[in-house]
Amino acid sequence: MFLPVLPPHAPQPVMSIVTQGPLPRRLHHAVLCLGNFDGLHRGHGALVALAQALAGQQDLPLALMSCEPHPRSFFAPPGQAPFRLTTPVQKRLLFPAAGADYLFEPAFDAAFAALTPEDFLQGVLRGRLRVGTIVCGSDFRFGAGRRGDAETILRFAARHGLGARIVEKALPVSSTAVRAAINAGEIAEANRLLGRPWQIDLLADGLQLRPPPGHYLARRPEGGPPFGIALPAARARHGRFLDMLERL
């Protein structure tokens, strides 16, 4: 299992959050795993496991990249963005549990979206982050117009003496499939695809009191079977599905 699920009161591993500015020297030459990682589901397992192994063998930092907002949210028409499986709050819990020494979380805005594949690889990964090895899936696309792909990364790494590993998709699991299962109320299937219970961030409004830390059972407003596991969070809201919480 590449991603341990931490009990609610377990000490959280330490992970740096990198958005902008210089990268500390101790994080240079990292094994960087590229992807959106919405949900950090079982389909991401082989990708993260390989990056974990490479970082461990070479005693190098392990890093994951995940933009904010999600690129699909940025490009979607107003009100049509798919709901997130992993919010920024949850990433700060799940990613260090996967062994990441830092999360590269660039702001996905018009300027970032306009970067050419070469600008991203040379200016961001090599110039700013000084990565040592790049790991991505065979279907990974990046750069303006999604013109960059795995072959682009392999060629760039060969020219500049960097490591690069491409991982073929091993499981028929995707964030889209997880979202479809959740929308259909098939939470057991969503949990199977994720490899862990689906989690929801909660934020109390008005006179409501924020519940104490712990695991809660979320239900649909109209009642019915349990809908998923919710972890109370300081910031983030996901009111679309929730009406009642039951402490586990």
UniProtKB/TrEMBL annotation:
Record has Cell wall biogenesis/degradation as a keyword: no
Catalysed reaction, written as an equation: FMN + ATP + H(+) = FAD + diphosphate
Domain FAD synthetase: 26-169
The entry's keywords: ATP-binding, FAD, Flavoprotein, FMN, Nucleotide-binding, Nucleotidyltransferase, Transferase
Keyword hit for Cell membrane: no
Xref: CDD domains: FAD_synthetase_N
EC number: 2.7.7.2
Pathway: Cofactor biosynthesis; FAD biosynthesis; FAD from FMN: step 1/1
The family this protein is said to belong to: Belongs to the RibF family.
The protein's name in its UniProt record: FAD synthase
Source taxonomy: Bacteria, Pseudomonadati, Pseudomonadota, Alphaproteobacteria, Rhodobacterales
